[in-house]
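task queued by scheduler; priority normal; single chain, no ligands, no partner chains; default sampling; output format set to structure tokens
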Amino acid sequence: MRAFRLPLLFAATFSVFSSFVALPACADELRVLAAGAIAPIVRTVAADFERRSGIHVTVANATGGVVDKRVRSGAAADVVVAPDGVLRGLGKDGYLNLASERPIARVGIAVAIRQGAPSPAIATVAQFRKALLDAPSVAVIDPKAGGSSGIYLEKLFERLGIASQMHAKEVLVPGGLVAEKLVDGSAALALHQQSEILLVKGAKLVGPLPADIQNYTVYVGAVGARTASGATGRAFLTMFGEETARRAMVEHGLLPEGD
């Protein structure tokens, strides 16, 4: 019987104890299902976890809505990292163990253009609204796909009184990196979570939505209610509090929870 060893963490300061905790013998694989913008960070943590524990981690990602459907349909996942509303809904219905819940990071929505295009003014709500109306086409996540930014933006366009104009020019993306539509010429403007914009080569980040209308998605992790790898999953989640993970969050445009 082998034991895997990972450092313990101070919950408040994220410092690493010099002592170690032995994990019980378990399967050689940890299955993680991650939603949207948090996926690059999950992969960073997964690589570190594999190196330190010897346990292989598979990471699958989709929009928050698809993550919800997959878990409810019986998808095998030892750990789920998703927007807080999705995760707590799954926990309430018995799919996840909410006692293991760990807040990880939050991210806001931003505006992007193709590299080389002139940047619109978006510092105020009025400027942002004008930029949307002036753009011939705007790429967003299709709200029907369950992406958190798309759901919020659909309601925001209604609040701004421009829903009909936006529906006529929207380039709806079912999932993935919305800013890719800038690079292939399908859209002149893209609205997506900042961390996902930064992943697209050839896209330029203009800036976040004005503070008065900004919307943050908070990502939370928890282990599956029926997984046999609960201890391993909890150890995996603690690593999001370490400096390597927190630094990766900042580099990818996310804000570590607790900051």
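post-processing summary
- The two ends are 40 Å apart (CA to CA).
- Residues 1-25 have pLDDT under 50 and may be disordered.
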